[in-house]
Amino acid sequence: MVDLLAQYNHIQKEVDRAVIDVIRSSKYINGPQVKSFTQNLSQYLEGAEVVPCGNGTDALQIALMALGLKPGDEVITATFTYVATAEVIALLGLKPILVDVHRDTFLIDISQVEKAITNRTKAIVPVHLFGQCANMEALMQLAEKHNLFVVEDTAQAIGADFTFSDGRKMKAGTIGHVGCTSFFPSKNLGCYGDGGAMFTRDPEISAALRMIANHGQSKQYYHDKVGVNSRLDTIQAAILDIKLPHLDTYNDHRRAAADRYDKAFADNPHVQTPKRVSNSTHVFHQYTLILSSSVDRDALKEHLATKEIPAMIYYPVPLHHQKAYRQDNDKSFPETEHLCKNVISLPIHSELTVEQQEIITGEINSFILN
Prior knowledge:
The chain is α/β, with parallel strands linked by helices and 370 residues long. It is 39% helix and 15% strand. The chain folds into 2 domains: 4-245, Type I PLP-dependent aspartate aminotransferase-like (Major domain) (Aspartate Aminotransferase, domain 2, 3-Layer(aba) Sandwich); 246-369, Aspartate Aminotransferase, domain 1 (Alpha-Beta Complex).
C-alpha cells in the first residue's frame, strides 16, 4: 500500500546522518531534534503551537483531557473511522455519540452532528478521513452556537488546506480548538516508528497539553494535573525533521497518482472514484473506491492478491457495530453501512509509478468489466 523503502532511498544520506547524530549525542529523550522539528512544524502550520507526543491515539486522548471534560459528557464523532477516534472518548469515561457521514466524501455529516447535540454535548471530533477536511467552517459555526469544543482528527490529512467562504485558508488541524495527528510510518508525514502531535492556537490549551503529556507537571516533581507519559522519540523527531520539507512534494505526488486513477476508472460504470470537496485540498492518504453492489468485493481483493497487488478495506465494520461501541438504540447509519460493504482502497504513495498504476487499474477494470 506504501513503499517506505523507495521513499527512504531518496533521503537515505540525510536520514542516516540525522539518526547517527542522535546516537552519538546520547540525547534520546527530548533531545534538540525534538525542539527543532516542533518549531519547523509550527512554522509549516502557520504559527500554530505544536505539542509532540508518543502517537496519534495519545494525541486524541491528551487533547480531550486538556479540555476539562467530565465523565458522562458527550462527544460527537463519525461512525465511519478508525477505532482510536472513539476509543479515547470511552477511555476517559466520556460518551461517544456516533453520527453518519456523507457517502460520496466519507466525511462527517454536519446536519447529523447538529441533530445529535444535547445539553450533555461538550465536544465534536471531526475526522478528516482519507486526506481532505470536513466542513470546518460550518462545524466551527455550530460549535460556537452551542459552546462546544472541536478536536480535529487530522491523522490522515496533514498538509491539506481548508478554504473558508471569505477566501481565508488554514491548514488541517489548526482550525479547531485542538488538532491531532499521527506520524505512523504509512502516514503522509510518517516516522520509522510511533509518533504523534497536537496543534492549537490557544495558549492556555497549549500549556495544558504540554503539562498533561509530561505527567501533569508544571515543573519537575510538581504535578498540577493528572497526566500521562507521552513523548516523541528523539530519533523519530530527527527523521521527521528531514521528511517535513518534502511533505508538500509527497502530497503533490499522491494527488497526481489519484488523478491517474480517476482517469483510468472514468469509463467503468461500476466504480465511483473519490469525490473532492470544493473547500479543501486532498492529500490522498488513501485512494478509496466505492464499488457498485454488483461487484464481488472480496473476489476482487483476492484476484488482486494473486497478482501481488495489495488492497485494503477501510473499514469493514463500522463503530456502531463494534461490541465495544454499540449504541443503546436501534439508530441506523445507512451511508456508513453502505460504505463498509462497498469500499476498497488501492495503493497510493509518493513513489507509485505510472507503470504500477497501469497494472493495478488494468487488473481491476478487466475483473469488473469482463
